[in-house]
Amino acid sequence: MNIKTVWFSLLVLLSFAIDARCRRQGIIAAQKVSCNELATNMDMPESETPSSDQEGLPHDASNLNPTFEQEENALANEQANAAIARAETTPAEANEPSPTHVVIPATQAPHPMPEQVEPRAPVSTARIIPPAIVGQGAYAIPRETAAPNPVTMQSVRPQTKSSGAAQAVASASAFESNAVSSDDPEVAALLSKSNAGFDVDRKRKQVKNLVNRAISYFDNHTLDEVCAEFLKGKSFIEGELYIFLHDYEGNVYCNGNYYTMLWKNLWDLKDQFNTYIIQEIIKTAKEKKDWTTYYWYGATKVSYVKEVTKDGKPYALGCGYFSHSKDDQVVALVKGAVALFNTLVNQQGYPGEEAFSSFSYPLGRFVFGDLYIYALDFNGDQVAHGERPGLIGTNAWNYKDAKGKYVNQEIVRKLKETTGGGIWIEYVSKAAPKLAYAEKVVDNKRKEEYFIACGYYPTVTRSQAVDLVKRGYEYMKRQGKTRAAEAFSSKRDDTFRYGDMALTVYSTKGVDIADGGNADLIGSNQWDWKDDDGNLYIQEIIKKGLEGGGWVNVKLRNSFESVYVESIELGLEKYLIVTAFFPISKRETSLLLVKSAVGILKTSSEVEAMRAFTQPGSFIRGDLSITVYDSEGICLADGENYDNIWRNMLDAKDDNGKPYVRLLINEVRRGPVQLTYTLRKAQKTVFAEQVVKGDKTYTVVCGYYE
């Protein structure tokens, strides 16, 4: 054996040792990436990327003009490398669940998450493979529905709604809260887009009016009269809205009609993102900031809070609502990350890396669907990234979007000019408008400044998803499978990408033919992949596509994902073209909760299903929860409203005398339905589906107050 052979053997062994170490630390190392490959994948504003006319190319390669044959070879090499990486996976590792399959339970207040830090995300040149862009799940989702007649039951029927940044700007209305408002008209307009289908302005006015009425009552009655009325009366309950009252020590005097909260001291209550909820509410009242955002019962809550005084003692009186919108979710994630940074670094004395590693853990609590945290210092160095930890250590100070905006420089400038709170910034990424919310943090010991941010695409909609798939269909029909696979998977342009949406192509056997979200998955067979509910989602997507196409919904990364699929025939072969996105709205979440509950009820026992629907967890999301009636009208589940369980609700009537339960049970026999009625002085829209299991029939319901 010569010296060259010895050195080669040592290098091979060293390579395997490094790969094994990365796997033990939770990293899926599909392939090593060079510096040029890393630059190619840096398409986020927080990273150093080429300008829009050179998208996907290294800066020193901007003059290259690769031929089609060269790009074909590059694609073939990508596929070959991915296949090699999969072949090197040991049998034990192959049986371990991938990040796509990990269930991340949502911790619900008032059950605070134990203080802990997620496993540290190693900084490595190995690429972390994010879950496939396609979603998981098994149930067709109606795309949009017309507003129902308030006195009749309607089946949910699809409609297509136009969308886009121009419409968002045209229909904009500014928010009152500093947390979700902006002086920039375009930013304010885009913010309003994520609340489509839910009138935020009206809800905020309703909340303010309720609080102002409560303050007037508080000022003119004794404390016991006030608490009795807030707790037991009906004057201060409007739909899902109620009044809460806390003293400045964190003691609960009333919390709507939730008796279990009375007299508890919740000073140290934290949400799953580490925000001290009651302390935040009291701080808002003291500083007269009016609005605050935090996580409560599995969803983001926005509360209007005022200081009131009785017999010289101050209290925080307020009311909140759940918007189920991405902008509020983004704010909650950033605020939680800021709270964790201050706790670990400035209170407990840990170095900043401890907090940053928590933000960069791809399966941690700071990842919610397509939302994640990233952080940079004020020199532009990337210190955390929840989607691509491989970017940590790069400098993104000179990153420009497609319009030439220096995004990170703009964030730092705005934060330096802001006295408190956070800022919004709008830019263009992957052919779509994107919004990012950022707050400043300071390591008091090291005197180092950072910003923590999160972003989303407000104009990504179902109609955009359908349009993207149809454009991919036409291209694949004209150009064939090979050219389509190259075009869909390439990061050199955004022709088949809109925001976080990209195209994936599957064979009828579940093989990934093209993948605009993650080229490392090309060539993999995903037939047996499961979502967080255990559904074989790739099989369901393929089935839906072969049956004519449409929507499939799934559970992934602590959120719901909507998947659109169409089939295409090329000669004797059939393929499935897919795209997906994570919608967050009251309407979408209600629909998806019903679909998910139907799946659980079909595959689990009655006892297991009802336990899941009535315990804090994934089926209670803020003011949204699952209600189940049997065929006789007996209520078997109603979120955490245990008073209704085992009651016969068949003749229950709304404020106008409408027997809404009887209507639901009768009409749901014909298919999924939607009903609007008035309850607790507010209009409520609900969605329902029927489940027949053996000799029992169930009506599964979820809805929200307008």
Structural write-up:
The protein is of the alpha+beta class and 706 residues long. The protein has 17 helices and 27 strands. Strand 18 and strand 19 (559-570) form a beta hairpin. Helix 10 (326-347) runs antiparallel to helix 11. The chain starts with a helix and ends with a strand. 48% of the residues are buried. The model is unreliable at 15-181 (pLDDT under 50).
Task: Describe this structure in a few short sentences.
The chain has 706 residues and is of the alpha+beta class. Helix content is 31%, strand content 23%.
Features:
single chain; 706 residues; alpha+beta; 6-stranded antiparallel beta sheet; 5-stranded antiparallel beta sheet
Low-confidence stretches: 15-181
CA gyration radius, whole angstroms = 26 Å
Shape: flat
User: Helical content, roughly?
Assistant: 25-40%
Question: Biggest sheet, strands in spatial order?
Answer: 3-25-26-27-23-24
Major β-sheet annotation: 6 strands, antiparallel
Q: What structural category do the secondary elements indicate?
A: alpha+beta
Number of helices: 17
The total beta strand count reads: 27
Provide the residue-averaged pLDDT: 78
Q: Report strand %.
A: 15-25%
